Amino acid sequence: MEGILSTAMEAQLLSVIESKIDEAVAKRSSPDPWSNIVTRKEICERFNIKDTQTIANWEKKGLKSCVSPYVDTKTIVYDKREVAKFLGYDNW
After folding, report:
1. How far apart are CA 81 and CA 49, in angstroms?
2. pLDDT grade for 75, boundaries at 50, 70 and 90
3. Measured between alpha carbons, how far is 73 from 32 in angstroms, rounded to an integer?
């Protein structure tokens, strides 16, 4: 019995399937998204800043904070990449 798909079509289909599997594996092995989140205190420790109010002042000048989905949460968090970008660094 002859195959339903041509050899070229089978190869193309196999390529698409392999690509989708590779994407799924990459997503699964990507780093934890929470690993990029830091608090004001952690920023102060990292950059030897004495007062967390400095970070609040940075917010007024454009540093983006992450908004918690929980209304009552008072801890303000930041994405490390945003902090580095704000300070002119390539990475944290």
Report:
1. 18
2. confident
3. 22
Domains of the chain by residue range: 1-30, 33-87
CATH number for the region 33-87 comes to 1.10.10
Give the SS3 label for residue 54. helix
Pairing assessment for the beta strands 37-39 and 77-79 based on DSSP bridges: antiparallel
Asked whether the beta carbons of 81 and 66 are under 8 A apart, the reply is: no
Looking at residue 68, its amino acid is: S
- In this prediction, residue 66 carries a pLDDT of 87
Q: Both tokens of residue 44?
A: 């102060």
Q: What SS3 class is residue 77?
A: strand
Angle at 67 between CA 63 and CA 73, to 5 degrees: 120
Question: Which token pair is 74?
Answer: 């008072």
Considering just the CA atoms, what is the radius of gyration of the chain in Å?
Answer: 23
